[in-house]
Amino acid sequence: MKDSRREPSGEKLAPKAVVNRVCLYLRQLEVFQRQGESTVSSSRLGASLGINDAQVRKDLAFFGQFGYPGIGYRIEGLIGKLRHVLGIDRDWPIALIGLGNLGRALLKYKHFRRRGFQIVALFDIDPHKIGQMYDGLPVRAIGELAEVAASRTINLAVLSVPADVAQSVADQIVACGIPGILNFAPTTLAVPSSVSVVAVDLSVQLEHLAYKVLNTQSAFPDPAHLFDGASGR
Amino acid sequence: MKDSRREPSGEKLAPKAVVNRVCLYLRQLEVFQRQGESTVSSSRLGASLGINDAQVRKDLAFFGQFGYPGIGYRIEGLIGKLRHVLGIDRDWPIALIGLGNLGRALLKYKHFRRRGFQIVALFDIDPHKIGQMYDGLPVRAIGELAEVAASRTINLAVLSVPADVAQSVADQIVACGIPGILNFAPTTLAVPSSVSVVAVDLSVQLEHLAYKVLNTQSAFPDPAHLFDGASGR
DNA sequence: TAGATTGTTAATCGATTAACAATC
DNA sequence: TAGATTGTTAATCGATTAACAATC
Questions:
Q1: Is A47 exposed, middle or buried (0-12, 13-18, 19+ CB in 10 A)?
Q2: What residues of chain A score a pLDDT lower than 70?
Q3: Which site among A83, A204, A227 would you substitute to test the B interface, given the most B Cβ atoms closer than 10 Å to its Cβ?
Q4: pLDDT at A218
Q5: How far is B165 from chain A (nearest CA, A)?
Q6: Which residue of A has its CA nearest to B117?
Q7: In a designed cystine with A72, which of A41, A213, B140, B151 is the match (CB 3.0 to 4.6 A)?
């Protein structure tokens, strides 16, 4: 430890893998806190998540010196620090675009609210949905996005529209100056580098699971022979 | 190309990142196919997804030799090959456990069905939900899982229950011999290594997006000064 | 043929893990 | 003090990219 109370926030952008794990650390620290614990070691935190202890220390060290040699990490303090470095120590007003089955489920998803994420405006392209109320919020036409985003300083959009309209809606999101998109549409969005996108394709996740199940050494009966009519290329 | 029609399927487990990208290649190839294309090069496929062309070739080469020098990849054939290596050239009967807002949305999610994933049985712990019908399927008590799984050879479970019961439900899934779990509960599951888990934590995705937005060099006004009361550790 | 594009090797880059002095 | 645990360096491991002979 070179110097004692330094916190290098914002110096370098953390790698994607680090940020994802830090989100998990935060989630698990809150579990420990609810259980009445006050400190935790990197090895115990890692074990609860299936992550190597050196990895835990290195990930946390990326954002500052939070630990105490011989003791571990003070849970309450670390939670506050991680919330700060992740940027979730504030409110994030969100526009939800697309009120299909998935969109409506996301609207009611409790965990978002608990994290400071609050859906404050709804949009859809379907004329039948526009004007309806969901969870106390009116559904607006996408054309109103610019106006609403400006007046409420919305900076995140959750996109749950069909794939074939996702790019055109994304273009409008970008045009409004909204700098972040959580994309549930199963398509890759082209956006300027100043706009951040996190993509969640539920089918891809399930496909990945299928691959893992088929390729995990086990007693699982692989009916591959039923399909191997294909030969060569 | 050492020897001409080899297909090393099942030799080594592909890295996670490779599998995820291959799922995206497949998704994009189907787009090209719908547009009436018959071949595509690694550079064009990569460009449409923001992936380096050498990466595309290397990922595909992991599973076999599918391309033709000077021509590219024949789309229809490659789609079939990738479906096969991913294991989605068959039906996957699925148990959906937890019929909250998210679970009900997943039940109606069209893209699963199109990929061969079919939800064939519903389970919940809430006595008020048990016996109700959703989408033509009755909600069963979790105690019936073993029986139903055995009779229908279910091999994937989608878990959308609250975090505090997720582990105990996962234990029952494992006990039934179901080898794959898609976990939407915001908690890490402890399962034997013979069981595959893919975790999707929607809050973590949104947190990651918030981090990216705050740390992308841009005109985005960072109100961090409102929060920096914290000092030291 | 000339141009295009693959599969693969080598080079680069980044991420993970082991080890340990410093610290409490 | 002895034991525990950090932050960090060095070693390992794996993933990405550039380059190019082989091929169509």
A1: middle
A2: 1-11, 217-233
A3: A204
A4: 63
A5: 14
A6: A206
A7: A41
